[in-house]
Amino acid sequence: MTPAVLESVVEISVLILGTLWPFLLVNSLGLSDPTMTTATRDSSPSRAAKDIASRYGLALLGTAAALLLRWALAPLLGDTFPYITLFPAVAFASWFCGIGPSAASIVVGLAGAKYWFVPLLHSPRVANREQLVGAILFLLASMLIVIVGYVSRRKSEVLRKAQGELEGRVQQRTAELDTANQSLRQLTSRLLELQDDERRRFARELHDSVGQLVAALAMNLAAVRGDLERVTKTLDTLSDSEDLVQDMSKEVRTISHLLHPPMLDEAGLSSALRWYIEGFAERSKIKVQLDVPADFGRLPTELETAIFRVVQESLTNVHRHSQSPSARIKVARSSSQVRVEVEDAGKGISPQKQLEMSRGGAPGVGIRGMRERLRQLGGTLDINSNGKGTVVVAQLPAAAESTLSTKASS
Q1: N or C: which terminus of the chain has fewer CB atoms within 10 Å of its end residue's CB?
Q2: Over residues 24-47, mean pLDDT
């Protein structure tokens, strides 16, 4: 080998190593393939070796195809643009194979182009400075392509990772929704059971109370029939029978009004609430303050019924659980919503019960029923409690319409 040839070989070798050392360093650190996950790196050595061999094989195959294409275009291009067909091969290697295979593709492509297409042909010698500059420009352009491909692969990996996290969150939300739907189905089933139980209870109470009163009345009438000659005793018995009939009528009227107060349909929510609160205060000895604007007006039937039931259930809970001597009810209305507050000064809900409710535990049937009734009308129910009392807040849209009614009408 002559000194000139040796000098050319040394120049090309220094040029290649000086340009490609960053790629070789990244490849040696194991960062050449950003799409390779930790699980892939931790797999068996044979599998990793096969993956590396396949990527290098693809890169070199693409380089060989580019050299063959340049050889086919030699009659048209001559010795100009010797590296023109190598850029797609470098881009392919950088995008699909990684930095190491890209470096190999650049080295093989540069050597092949110099050997076959750059004068002096079939010789590694650099004839002039123009050829050296061309090789440098090819290396710089190839390095830029590899860097762009590397950054693009990194971004693709970040996007794939974000997509995986998003899919995980979607699955989590789907599981939570399934749990909520299951709870709703359980609530619906429980409400139907309670409705049947409540009907049986009312039927039993009507039979026990009214039936006994009627039986007593029949006995009194029989006594009157047998004791007509005893006028004084007959008058007393008739008076007793009259009292029994009045008690029977009052019992039936009370049960009927508790089921659905007729005043709610006839006079509206304000009058129905005042009537119910007066009776509740008399029976429970709890002082109840009602705050309703004088110009409150009428609301849709379903909305008035829902508000009445919320107040009724809340006062029942105050009487059963809170041990509060007083309660305050505030009903306010705006153009868009109706707000109902029921506040007591009792012992409040225990922290353990509040924690159980906040973690999704099953609340009481009355609370679940109120929430379900308000949910069907587009409203919400919030319960705040401490050692000084409990506040139940219900909010409904002013023009609410039940979802069940909507489905029935459609």
Answers
A1: C
A2: 49
